[in-house]
Amino acid sequence: MVESSKETTPQRNKPPLAACKKCSVLSEQNQRASPKDFVQLLPLEICLKIFSQLDIQSLCNAAMTCQSWNRTLESCDHLWKHHCLVVKAVCQREVDGDRGNGYSWKVTLLRNYWKSKVKHGWLSGRYSNIHSRSALLEKSMYPMDVDTWGEILEAELER
Fold it and tell me: Within a 10 A sphere around the Cβ of 78, how many other Cβ atoms?
């Protein structure tokens, strides 16, 4: 029975696995399956396909579900890259800086996600006609550097 669980499909049929740095280790860990953990029960490529369909919030929640899921998501940086590229549309300088400093896609996403939401709101003019501080939502503020506030000010001046 142990040998049948070690059978795998040819490597050429597993493109998502090639993108993971630690997939061989994860495959071995998946063979010691817990009956309640689909990540340990299903082939890794199926788990990655499932995780790749999640939105940012769901992916972050999945990473906090259990150690098995966290290990899988930590080792497969490509799962975070798509979401990070969406954030990069608003925070290109910040994402490029983080990637240049060697941060993973996951860490880059976590460092810039809320900043991109707040920055997008400011740049789109959502807060252009605020008459008092109390009219600003709590989530409309986020620590941003001088260059980011400069971009926001330029956008306001152009309106």
Answer: 14
Residue 26 CA to residue 18 CA, distance in Å, equals 13
Q: Is residue 53 classed exposed, middle or buried when 0-12, 13-18 and 19+ CB atoms within 10 A define those classes?
A: exposed
Report the first-to-last Cα separation within the chain, whole angstroms. 69
Distance CA 124, CA 131 (A): 17
Residues 9-33: tens digit of each pLDDT: 333 333 445 555 554 445 455 445 4
User: Over the chain, what is the mean pLDDT?
Assistant: 79
- The three-class DSSP label of residue 159 is coil
34 contacts 68 by C-beta, under 8 angstroms: yes
Report helix, strand or coil for 52.
helix
Cβ–Cβ under 8 Å, residues 148 and 119? yes
> Helix count (H) and strand count (E) of the chain?
11, 0
Spatial neighbors of 49 by CB under 8 A, at least 6 apart, are 16
**Closest by Cα among 64, 65, 123, 63 to 91:** 123
Return the amino acid letter for 12. R
If you ran DSSP here, which 8-state letter would residue 32 be given? S
Question: What does the alpha-carbon distance between residue 40 and residue 28 come to, in Å, rounded to a whole number?
Answer: 9
Instruction: Please say whether the beta carbons of 108 and 95 come within 8 A.
Output: yes
